[in-house]
Design a protein that fits this description.
heterodimer, A: mainly alpha, 5 helices, 0% strand
Chain lengths: 206, 168
């Protein structure tokens, strides 16, 4: 296989050399009319350029460029729109999330404050209730004590003045109906019992 | 002492105020008679003005002739002595005593304590029944009020008994 490769290379090199030689010969012939031919080529090129790149062709190119540019712009706009939508969506999500988070946080704080206030109010109410209960108990005890004292005082007073009370009652009830004549025997017997004392007092008293 | 004259007091004369009225009546009679005597009109002496019941009773019970100056002087002397040194008692009742009641009381005092005793009558409605008696130095309470007070325990027990029975 190496031999074949070598043969191919040698053939290639040989054909290359022959071509070069032919080219040098050709070039040597062309050197003579180089100035004119160059000029003719340039003129021809200019003419062809004018012929090929005429106004229609340019307009065509311009239209194509415009269409292409519009297409690029449209594609970019679409991409931009998509990006914008995505961004908006992300932004919305972000805002929503943030707002929810903040709201939850605020609500949590608010709820905590409400709970604290409620707890405080409950404690305060409990304390007030306890104080009122204590006061009520104190007053009740005091009142009971005073009622007992008053009761005892009244009973004592009644016992002490029972005679006067009954006397007053008898006087009011039947005072006018008591006849002195009926009491004569009683009065005389009472005086009789103290007769000696009375006589003694009369004799030596004054 | 007034007893030397052997005078007596009629039952119509009870207390000091009656004696003073008697004295006033006697002095009025004395004035009248003196004036008649001064005028020398014997006929007028037969028509003496009407004297009070107390003076009349006093004269009757003591045999005093009002026309006799000595009797009048003795009577006046006796009354003055009586006002000065008669034994006195104050007795109070729950209501005004009737004349009959007063008569019995006075008779008893004059018979049992002293014939010339003067009894001043007072009114003390709060005693309800009985009487209170006050001498020169002593006070006697024979009233129902005093009896109630003296038997207070009995009264209290009597009041409590229905309550205890009701509870049972």
């Amino acid at each position: 296989m190496t031999i074949w490769w070598l043969a191919a290379i040698l053939v290639t090199l040989g054909s290359g050399g022959i071509s070069l030689i032919w080219l040098f010969v050709k070039l040597d012939r062309l050197k003579v009319s180089d100035g004119e031919s160059r000029k003719r080529v340039l003129d021809s090129a200019n003419s062809d350029v004018e012929h090929i790149f005429n106004n229609e062709f340019r307009e065509e190119l311009r239209n194509r460029g415009r269409l292409y540019f519009e297409k690029i712009i449209a594609e970019n706009a679409m991409f931009l729109q998509q990006d914008l939508r995505l961004t908006t969506s992300d932004l919305n999500e972000y805002m929503k999330r943030e707002l929810l988070s903040k709201l939850r946080e605020e609500f949590s704080k608010y709820e905590e404050s409400i709970t604290d206030a409620k707890q405080l109010a409950t404690e305060s109410i409990e304390k007030t209730k306890q104080t009122i209960e204590d006061e009520r108990k104190l007053l009740s005890d005091k009142l009971t004590e005073e009622i007992e004292v008053e009761k005892e005082r009244m009973v004592k007073r009644f016992s002490e003045n029972a005679a006067d009370i009954v006397n007053h009652y008898v006087l009011a009830a039947i005072g006018e109906q008591i006849d002195l004549s009926d009491q004569l025997d009683f009065i005389i017997s009472e005086i009789e019992n103290n007769k000696n004392d009375i006589i003694e007092d009369i004799k030596h008293g004054s | 002492m007034v007893r030397k004259e052997n005078f007596q007091l009629p039952t119509i004369i009870v207390g000091r105020s009656d004696v003073m009225k008697l004295r006033r009546d006697l002095l009025a009679a004395e004035d009248y008679i003196s004036q008649i005597e001064l005028r020398g009109s014997k006929a007028s002496l037969k028509h003496l003005p009407r004297i009070s019941q107390r003076l009349s009773d006093f004269n009757d019970i003591n045999g005093v002739n009002i026309m006799n100056r000595d009797d009048r002087n003795r009577s006046l002397l006796f009354i003055n002595e009586l006002l000065k040194s008669a034994p006195e008692l104050h007795i109070s009742f729950a209501s005004d005593p009737s004349s009959a009641f007063l008569l019995k009381i006075i008779i008893w005092f004059r018979n049992n304590i002293d014939p010339l005793i003067l009894v001043n009558i007072g009114l003390e409605p709060s005693i309800v029944a009985g009487c209170t008696l006050r001498s020169a130095n002593r006070y006697y309470d024979f009233s129902l009020r005093h009896n109630f007070a003296a038997h207070r325990d009995l009264l209290i027990n009597g009041l409590k008994e229905p309550l205890v029975n009701n509870k049972v």
